[in-house]
Amino acid sequence: MGMYIGPKCRLCRRERQKLFLKGQKCMTEKCPVSRRDYPPGMHRDSRYRMSRYAIQLREKQKLKRIYGMRERQFRRYVDLAKKVKGITGDYLLELLERRLDSMLYRGGLASSRDQARQLINHGHVWVNQRRVSIASYLTRPGDVIAFKESARGKKGIQAAVGESDQRSTSSWLERQNGQLRVLDKPKLDELHQDLEMSLIVEFYSR
């Protein structure tokens, strides 16, 4: 299946909760989830008992949509997490948060992961003074993330840096002068995401 290119708010309504896919709009009264907390479609008000498989599927789809990933790419992260000793679900989430697009988003230099991916794909982001145009690049403690010098004059970049002062920064990141330093691994207890990682691991263990 290809990448979903339809309305982002429709995905949030499908999961009946905010997935924060539209940046600032998700924080306002314009958010459709706040006004219509039921799924889209003609049978939106129907109620039915979900099977265990359906519950696992919905949780998996929710996580995929939050991070904007295709199934094959997401499955690779799951397989990688399974190879590590410890709690598979926690390591899976850590891998997803270590992605460069997630770091830009968590650091406040992008209003959404979609915007972060666009900035990265266009070659505007450098890591340790080298251009990185791959959104899935896995960061490490000590990495310094910044916008390319020649791109800082662009309106979009200036807006991103200017708006960053109004956004919070995760504790594992330090933001200063429009750049980020990775201080530590992502702290999962600070993500505040309503996710049941065990259900996702169960789904891929069938």
From TrEMBL:
Domain Small ribosomal subunit protein uS4 N-terminal, residue spans: 3-97
UniProt key word Flavoprotein: no
GO molecular function, one term: rRNA binding
One Gene Ontology biological process: ribosomal small subunit biogenesis
UniProt-listed Pfam families: Ribosomal_S4, S4
Entry GO CC: small ribosomal subunit
Cross-referenced SMART domains: Ribosomal_S4, S4
Record-annotated RNA-binding S4 domain positions: 98-158
Record's keyword terms, sorted: Ribonucleoprotein, Ribosomal protein, RNA-binding, rRNA-binding
UniProt subunit comment: Part of the 30S ribosomal subunit. Contacts protein S5. The interaction surface between S4 and S5 is involved in control of translational fidelity.
Family membership: Belongs to the universal ribosomal protein uS4 family.
Function per UniProt: One of the primary rRNA binding proteins, it binds directly to 16S rRNA where it nucleates assembly of the body of the 30S subunit. With S5 and S12 plays an important role in translational accuracy.
Name of the featured protein: Small ribosomal subunit protein uS4
Native source organism of the sequence: Fraserbacteria sp. (strain RBG_16_55_9)
Lineage, uppermost ranks: Bacteria, Candidatus Fraseribacteriota
